[in-house]
């Protein structure tokens, strides 16, 4: 008996030791993986481009010679071929990157802010070269070892070779932009036919290589596991969505078949490419609103700050009066939103870390909208904090088509705690059901209501900041422009995180990065903008039924994961493609109340003639630039008339930065005439052929729509006189964001007008980092920069530095 017990104990000890050994092995493997990623990252910053290329070519030639001598085997032949391809692409890419880097500084906002799409493209290519250099060194050191994983290393090398080939194509496209654009311009300024040809050529490039093994290689390592999780979830959800469309339905067992996407990066990349190119905006509405479901939102709120007030309010559609800033004795009528669906309430969420005076008033409680089990019972407490002097009015992102304040609640709660001010977040109606200008009307109405009723919100309203991310940043600018047009109080400052300021169909160096960005693919961006512009041509009733049917099926089979999916789409808008838009119908309003007419509707009801719709439709950025020096003396002052509330007259729009950028003209002249050919394919040198997509034609609208040139939709196209009305602007952008050039060009226009503007650019993070604020140290630091910008607007003292541990 004793010996049996002893042998059992020995077996238990052995099993425990084995388990510890396995855990230690996993831990060591994870540390080695992180160490290898860190080494590749260090290579990116420590070596200049030419040295990196020469080192990579030398290693590629050495590995190529070794595997060529290993006999006629298929694996050796493929390894030799992949290193030959790496050598060829690296040698071809280096001169193109050097040319871009030599002129990139001419497009910066200033010397303290070295950021633009050309720099981002070069940095991304360097990341790819650094990874290949690190991997080539590893192969050279371990190729004779019996533990060398030939198949794994071959697959990774082939994936990064494909990525390097596509990056070389992007570098040539960037050269084409440099040759075509005017000095200082980042956006493609050819005629509309040339832009369409350029974009149609661009979207045929193969993208799957960037969504498999190479997924997120350009971002900080802490982000990559999250991106892998998102990509696996996306392709799995897309498979279920496809089954629902074809009538097969979603079965509980089918949820587990998607595990193959987790273990097969190539399959995942191909499926990811198919989804982003072919599925409609309603799929993206469902997928991006996953964060709205009860389980995930509850988990997010568990990790966020605890606040005393988080109440969803419904503002009734009632007109009210606002004083004019020029003469407070005079008032203007603020009408409720009416575009497309008629007058309706506007939902807003009030968030406050402390319960402040006015926030538990009966008047505010009467506006409260029930959220079921999440609603808070705020009973009056004996101690209340006094009203804050400041107020944040927040407008969430989501591509104009997805998400609500609930999706952004975790970081808003942190803001409320750190700033000590109440926050009012606006839940505007989403496209395609509510296209432009409905969202603008609702945000403007809610902003004016907040200014008038700030006492109910726990603020005296002495300082008001408009803050928003992505599409919300766009709406912050346009709400301010509309407030100035009405003559009412504009905010004291704007904090816009990675905003979209140009929705016109065009290209820029940073937007070329959408080829590899898993969060902002080009085809998805165009579908979001198409929906917002009213160009969605699908049968909405059928699509709504499909989306609801999908929600029902998913709720039935995966209640814990996908319950409560609503029609929404894309936390990452921003786009740029002219879509087949239709004009917003003018709503009938009493003539006795001229200000009840929508500013944006007035913008679409232009008079015939030089500023009519037909002429505006044919305008390009180049045309706007050429008109910058003429007719400026005839520009009318901003007033409340319907005429001046229309699109900016192109007379005083000037994209030319000035004579200080003259050296760039010389650099452009040095480009080969081959780069300045008429066809988009002329951008490639002879003998170079990028990889093309195998997914067939992309469902991406590229038709023209004058509505995207409306300054209340694309604030970058606003006239100088309109931009002069903006308050101080603080922009926080991402260096690797396809929307980076939107921020840079908007900041340059404001700087050229002498307006106070700051631009902060965070490195190695994707678009939408605010929603990832709790993910890692880098995202927390980037989110802290947004808070710091709001502090500057409120003139609040900086928080005490955290003690060092």
TrEMBL record:
Could you tell me which InterPro entries the record lists for this protein?
AB_hydrolase_3 (IPR013094), AB_hydrolase_fold (IPR029058), HSL_N (IPR010468), Lipase_GDXG_HIS_AS (IPR002168), Lipase_GDXG_put_SER_AS (IPR033140)
* Domain of life of the native organism: Eukaryota
Stretch list, region Disordered? 1-45, 362-387, 583-652
Q: Which UniProt keywords apply?
A: Cell membrane, Cholesterol metabolism, Cytoplasm, Hydrolase, Lipid degradation, Lipid droplet, Lipid metabolism, Membrane, Phosphoprotein, Steroid metabolism, Sterol metabolism
GO BP:
cholesterol metabolic process; triglyceride catabolic process
Could you describe the subunit structure of this protein?
Monomer and homodimer. Interacts with CAVIN1 in the adipocyte cytoplasm. Interacts with PLIN5.
PANTHER family, from UniProt? Answer: HORMONE-SENSITIVE LIPASE, TRIACYLGLYCEROL LIPASE
Name it.
Answer: Hormone-sensitive lipase
């Amino acid at each position: 008996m004793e010996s049996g017990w002893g042998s059992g104990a020995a077996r238990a000890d052995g099993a425990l030791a084995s388990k510890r050994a396995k855990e230690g092995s996993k831990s060591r493997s994870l540390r080695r993986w992180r160490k290898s990623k860190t080494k590749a990252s260090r290579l990116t910053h420590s070596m200049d481009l030419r040295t990196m290329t020469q080192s990579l070519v030398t290693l590629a030639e050495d590995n190529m010679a070794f595997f060529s001598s290993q006999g006629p085997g298929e694996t050796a032949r493929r390894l030799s071929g992949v290193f030959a391809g790496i050598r060829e692409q690296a040698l071809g890419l280096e001169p193109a990157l050097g040319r871009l880097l030599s002129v990139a500084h001419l497009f910066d906002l200033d010397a303290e802010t070295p950021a633009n799409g050309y720099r981002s493209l070069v940095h991304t290519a360097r990341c790819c070269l650094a990874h290949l250099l690190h991997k080539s060194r590893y192969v050279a050191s371990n190729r004779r070892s019996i533990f060398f994983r030939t198949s794994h290393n071959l697959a990774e090398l082939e994936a990064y070779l494909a990525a390097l080939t596509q990056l070389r194509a992007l570098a040539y496209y960037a050269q084409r932009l440099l040759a075509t654009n005017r000095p200082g311009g980042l956006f493609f300024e050819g005629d509309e036919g040339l832009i369409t040809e350029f974009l149609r050529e661009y979207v045929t490039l193969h993208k799957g290589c960037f969504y498999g093994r190479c997924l997120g290689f350009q971002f900080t390592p802490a982000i990559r596991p999250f991106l892998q999780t998102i990509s696996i979830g996306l392709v799995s959800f897309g498979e279920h969505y496809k089954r629902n469309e074809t009538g097969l339905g979603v079965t509980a067992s089918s949820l587990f078949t998607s595990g193959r996407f987790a273990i097969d990066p190539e399959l995942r990349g191909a499926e990811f490419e198919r989804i982003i190119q072919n599925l409609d905006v309603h799929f993206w509405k469902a997928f991006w609103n996953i964060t709205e479901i009860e389980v995930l939102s509850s988990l997010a709120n568990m990790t966020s700050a605890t606040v005393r007030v988080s109440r969803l309010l419904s503002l009734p559609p009632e007109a009210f009066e606002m004083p004019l800033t020029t003469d407070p004795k005079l008032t203007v009528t603020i009408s409720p939103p009416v575009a497309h669906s008629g007058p309706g309430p506007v939902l807003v969420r009030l968030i406050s870390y402390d319960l402040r005076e006015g926030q538990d008033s009966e008047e505010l409680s009467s506006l409260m909208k029930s959220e079921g089990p999440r609603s808070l019972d705020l009973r009056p407490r004996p101690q209340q904090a006094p009203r804050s002097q400041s107020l944040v009015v927040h407008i969430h992102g989501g591509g104009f088509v997805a998400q609500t304040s609930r999706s952004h609640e975790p970081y808003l709660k942190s803001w409320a705690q750190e700033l000590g001010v109440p926050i009012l977040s606006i839940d505007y109606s989403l496209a395609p059901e509510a296209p432009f200008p409905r969202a603008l009307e609702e945000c403007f109405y809610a902003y004016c209501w907040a200014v008038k009723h700030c006492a109910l919100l726990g603020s005296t309203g002495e300082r008001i900041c408009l803050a928003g991310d992505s599409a919300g940043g766009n709406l912050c600018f346009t709400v301010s422009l509309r407030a100035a047009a009405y003559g009412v109080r504009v905010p004291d400052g704007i904090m816009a995180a990675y905003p979209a300021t140009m929705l016109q169909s065009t290209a820029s160096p940073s937007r070329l990065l959408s080829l590899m960005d898993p969060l902002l693919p080009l085809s998805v961006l165009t579908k979001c903008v198409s929906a917002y512009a009213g160009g969605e041509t699908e049968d909405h009733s059928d699509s709504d039924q499909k989306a609801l049917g999908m929600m029902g099926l998913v709720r039935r089979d995966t209640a814990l994961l996908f319950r409560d999916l609503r029609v929404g789409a894309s936390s990452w808008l921003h786009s740029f493609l002219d879509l087949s838009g239709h004009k917003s119908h003018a709503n009938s309003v009493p003539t006795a109340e001229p200000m009840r007419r929508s500013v944006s509707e007035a913008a679409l009801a232009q008079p015939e003639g030089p500023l009519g719709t037909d002429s505006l439709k044919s305008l390009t950025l180049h045309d706007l630039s050429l008109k910058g020096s003429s007719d400026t003396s005839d520009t009318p002052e901003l007033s409340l008339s319907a005429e001046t509330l229309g699109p900016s007259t192109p007379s005083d729009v000037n994209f030319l930065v000035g004579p200080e950028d003259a050296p760039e003209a010389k650099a452009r002249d040095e480009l080969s005439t081959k780069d300045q050919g008429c066809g988009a394919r002329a951008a490639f040198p002879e003998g170079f052929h990028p990889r093309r997509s195998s997914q067939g034609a992309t469902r991406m609208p590229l038709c023209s729509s004058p509505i995207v040139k409306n300054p209340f939709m694309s604030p970058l196209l606003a006239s100088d006189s309109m931009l002069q009305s903006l308050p101080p602007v603080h922009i926080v952008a991402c260096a690797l964001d396809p929307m980076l050039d939107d921020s840079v060009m908007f900041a340059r226009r404001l700087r050229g007008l002498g307006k106070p503007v700051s631009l902060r650019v965070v490195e190695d993070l994707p678009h939408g980092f605010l929603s990832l604020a709790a993910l890692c140290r880098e995202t927390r630091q980037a989110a802290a920069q947004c808070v710091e910008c709001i502090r500057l607007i409120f003139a609040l003292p900086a928080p005490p530095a955290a003690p060092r541990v």
